[in-house]
Amino acid sequence: MALAAMSASAHAVSVGEPAPQLEAQDQSGAWQRLDSFKGKVVYIDFWASWCAPCRRSMPALDRLRTQWSNDLIVVGVNVDSEKPDALAFLKKTPVKFPIVFDPEGSWASRFDAPGMPTGYLIDRDGIVRHVNVGYQPSELSELEDLIKKAVEGRS
């Protein structure tokens, strides 16, 4: 798997550690810097067009983004090597949160995302508070509770 190769030498980002400071261009061409979201709760979602669970998780994350619009920033990080694959996916599964493209895997390797989808909940101070691998609809209420705690500063 390409992702494993990209992350072989990386240190996995763990709960309680600062999130890596990275930047990449989003689908509109704007540069997104992770540290520019300091003061907000951020959910970084690594996904790929070939990932079946991502088709279900992306709309759920978009609903969470809407629900917590004043306090939560969701950023999707696409790891496809071909941007047209990601764009085709987004045409079928549109979301309103920024998507950055990581074809070389710089974000994925810095976070050491173990699979797709993998999400990282980052508090207002830039500290990783939760890592979620995979997607199960039954886990959404737990994620909502974690977001609420992070928003309230109770991470």
UniProtKB/TrEMBL annotation:
What PANTHER family does this protein map onto? CHROMOSOME UNDETERMINED SCAFFOLD_47, WHOLE GENOME SHOTGUN SEQUENCE, THIOL:DISULFIDE INTERCHANGE PROTEIN DSBE
Q: What is the lineage of its organism?
A: Bacteria, Pseudomonadati, Pseudomonadota, Gammaproteobacteria, Nevskiales
Quote the protein name from its UniProt record: Thioredoxin domain-containing protein
| CDD domains (UniProt xref) | TlpA_like_family
Q: Where is the Thioredoxin domain?
A: 13-152
Task: Say which domain of life the source belongs to.
Answer: Bacteria
Write out the GO MF terms: oxidoreductase activity
